Amino acid sequence: MDRSPAIWKFAKKMNHSLVLLSLLILLINISVIFVEATRNVHIVYLGMNKYADPARTKKSHHKMLSTLLGSKEAAQRSILYSYRHGFSGFAARLTQYEAESIADFPEVIQVFPNRIHKLHTTRSWDFIGIHHSSPKNALPDNMGKGTIIGVIDSGVWPESESFNDEGMDPIPSQWKGICQEGEQFNSTNCNKKLIGARWFIKGLQEQIERPINTTGSEDYLSARDGIGHGTHTASTAAGYFVRGANYGGLAEGLARGGAPLAHLAIYKVCWGIDSGGCTDADLLKAFDKAIHDGVDILSVSVGNEIPLYSYVDHRDSIAMGSFHAVAKGITVVCSGGNDGPISGTIENTAPWLITVAATTIDRAFPTSITLGNNQTFWGQSIDIGKHKPEFSALTYSERIALDSTDDFAKDCESGSLNATLAAGRIVLCFSKTDLQNIESASTSVKEAGGIGVIYAQFHEDGLGSCDIPCVKVDYEVGTHILSYIRKSRSPIAKLSSPNTAIGKWISPRVASFSSRGPSSITPAVLKPDIAAPGVDILAAYPSVGIQHSHSYALLSGTSMACPHVAGVAALIKSVHHNWSPAAIRSALVTTASQTGTDGASITAQGLTSKEADPFDIGGGHINPNKALDPGLIFNITREDYIHYLCTLGYSSASITGLANTKISCTSDQKRASGLGLNLPSITIPDLKMAAALTVTRTMTNVGHINSVYKAVIRAPPGVKIKVEPQILRFNLSTQNLSFRATFFSTQKVQGDYKFGSLTWTDGYHLVRCPIAIRVIRYQSYAHV
Question: Where would I find the Subtilisin-like protease fibronectin type-III domain in this sequence (predicted)?
Fold first, then answer.
């Protein structure tokens, strides 16, 4: 073959070009593969549908993606779902740059990455760090195995799956209780989970002064729960594993209590009969029997109202009954009340109690409101299955008032609406007082013939179920909707069904309704002690009757927060069998969290949103895993509590009546400061200007035998703190050490409470003691 130099050079040049072209194609393919690999699914939310035709909405989505990606083919490859019925939007594979670019499109409301979520019904337990999924994955805490939680409440619905005893250990040998029979409740309703039940009604019967009659009532003369409150709290504390639990499809997933392998003992003292309630006589009998029966923990979601009675006053049955329970080694956990956000409204403030505040979790139930002008607003609702996906006439309650001068129509109070004008309409109501809520407003609207409610109110946590579709919105959204009503000749609206959304809200936040400290009776005792989930908590519920059509319900209140702490207390007790109630309380308080899901400080909802302080959350938000290993604890004995009562100035006879033991307060005790009780907190209501005050605490090492702890001080503004010693050294022979904290005011004027902390750390444990101090110029309150 002729291989002339010219031809050879040409062929060589062509080969180089082909090689370069091949490399270029390869690089392009690699870059495409790389771009595709960096694409993640994002949801592009566009809000209200602009088009009535779903096909046209879908076409608009493809057009938008084509504009972004450069071709119809690229758009078709990228898109996964087109949301075109309830709202407008789409899910598509996008790079981070593409997601940021499309977020700038004028039609786009929000772009957010797709996240994998586990289906959990009692979301609160995962939220606070307890991830039980079955009895087979038992952690070192054994899920409360071997402990008995007594629940003093409104009874139990024994058929609930949450009280199934599959996989439960035999009944503990310490148990001495019974399964008391009664109306629609017999001994077969108890099992290895629900080991006992009693009911007490004599106190109520005496109060009513007539024979008890359950005819026409949903309650029962037995431990069976007709109200639902007790069933809910019991299953929250120690319910067994239930897969697929939900409330009408909302919050679907795995339900279980905090201590799912703990046993339950039920003490019914609260009744729905004849307006019922929970009387002191019945409460005290329940405490008495619980002590006898051998419970380890008591959960009491019951309380008094302000003003509070003294601890030695026989009218505070919870303080009295719990004193005896704690003296026997039983940890008593109580709800703090639902009278927030007003200061000084906290209830169940006895120093031997664990008093619980309520917080939110990261779950919500968003519901869209579509107006006739194609605007979409969002509220929240839990009324699954009641909403019809169609437009209806919309009106404002004031427009349909029976009396044009009647101000009660604004918040849809009973009897204020014109039935002729309300019939067949969705009614917008504006809350004016705390006497009206969304449930009562919906009842008023329904009675007037209305078919739905949009209820605008100042921020208040917790949702209620209504007889007709109802959606709660804030004042801003309510005002926008009212503006539309006023401008439109024929206003219409459509209420969508709610959905479950998890992880998209900063939590925890202190619930607006949660009662706040300081204690109105003993301000030197920090209350509440701890905060726990108490907003829209899903747990077991009676499944009978029109009102009880679901076997699980979403309820809110410090009543719901209380059993969360009781469940964690059972976990601690199952690991540390010999710990006193004070030790368990100390572990909870000193290890509690101060931050939310975003890493910022926990906020408290109220008249305004603010950073939560110890009067909102006590030591902080419950942290179960850290509470199991607190490092150090503050212990308190029965004798310490008696000494404390003497320092308050109570008479020896009064304290004898409470303690059921002959007490004689010495003159030294009567002169002693009430600040000496060995609490895991320091509260000084009366630090005088230009004066020093010293508080002593004693700590017990429950961590590593040889440990060295250093003090870290965060003094409240206007106060200096000196701690002696600043280092605590524990060893085999020294397991208890005391320290003195001296407080000096640098303020020149009297002020409100200021907050700080004293934390002891060994490099691993953080033992945090919250501090609250009020500097005074004049003696502004009495101790008793």
Answer: 677-773
User: Is 404 a residue whose pLDDT tops 90?
Assistant: no
Q: Mark whether 415 and 380 lie in a shared domain.
A: yes
| Confidence bin at 135 (pLDDT 50/70/90) | low
Q: Where among 92, 116, 140 does a domain terminate?
A: 116
- Reduce the DSSP state of residue 28 to 3 states and report it: helix
CA–CA separation, 703 and 140 (whole Å): 16
Q: What is the 3-state secondary structure (H, E, C) of 29-98?
A: HHHHHHHHHCCEEEEEEEECCCCCCHHHHHHHHHHHHHHHHCCHHHHHHHEEEEECCCCEEEEEEECHHH
Helices (H), 648-718: 652-659, 667-671
Distance CA 780, CA 359 (A): 32
Domain identity same for 451 and 411: yes
Q: Is pLDDT of 218 > 60? A: yes
Q: Are 447 and 400 in contact (CB under 8 A)?
A: no
Q: CATH no. for residue 436?
A: 3.50.30.30
Give the residues across from 757 on adjacent strands. Answer: 714, 770
Q: Is the pLDDT of residue 405 over 60?
A: no
Residue 5 lies in a domain: yes
User: What tokens were used for 672?
Assistant: 């002693």
Residues recognised as catalytic: 153, 229, 559
Residue 13 maps to a domain: yes
Shared domain for 163 and 291, answered yes or no, is yes
CA distance 782 to 135: 52
pLDDT, average across residues 54-71: 89
Q: For the chain, give me the number of helices (H) and strands (E)?
A: 19, 38
DSSP state of 518: S
Residues 397 and 335 reside in one and the same domain: no
Do 762 and 631 touch, CB atoms closer than 8 A?
Answer: yes
The answer to whether the CB of 86 falls within 8 A of the CB of 495 is: no
Instruction: Say yes or no to pLDDT of 310 above 50.
Output: yes
> What 8-state DSSP symbol labels residue 379?
E
Same domain, 726 and 773: yes
317-331, 346-360, 694-708, 721-735, range with the lowest pLDDT: 317-331
C-alpha–C-alpha distance, residues 283 and 204, integer Å: 10
Predicted local confidence at residue 23, as pLDDT: 53
Backbone angles phi, psi at 418, to 5 degrees: -80, 115
**CATH number of the domain that 252 lies in?**
3.40.50.200
Report the pLDDT averaged over residues 124-131: 66
Kindly state whether residue 125 falls inside one of the protein's structural domains: no
Looking at the structure, tell me whether residues 262 and 354 fall in a common domain.
yes
DSSP character string of 118-154: --BSSHHHHHTT-----GGG--TTGGGTT-EEEEEES
pLDDT of residue 11: 42
Q: Is the peptide bond before 680 cis (omega within 30 degrees of 0)?
A: no
Contact 699, 634 (CB under 8 A): yes
Q: Would you state the structure tokens that stand for residue 174, as one six-digit string? A: 């310490």
**Contact (CB, 8 A) for 639 and 676:** no
Phi-psi region of 687 (alpha: psi -120 to 50; beta: other; left: phi over 0): beta
- For 764, the token pair is 């691993």
CA 296 to chain CA mean position, Å = 24
Return left, alpha or beta for 649; rule: phi > 0 is left, psi -120 to 50 is alpha, else beta.
Answer: left
* Residue span of the structural domain in which 642 resides: 637-673
Q: Domain tally for the chain?
A: 6
CATH at 728: 2.60.40.2310
In a domain, 348, yes or no: yes
Same domain, 161 and 253: yes
Residue from 84, 69, 79, 86 nearest 114 by CA: 79
| Sheet strand arrangement including 727-730 | 682-688, 766-776, 753-761, 707-714, 727-730
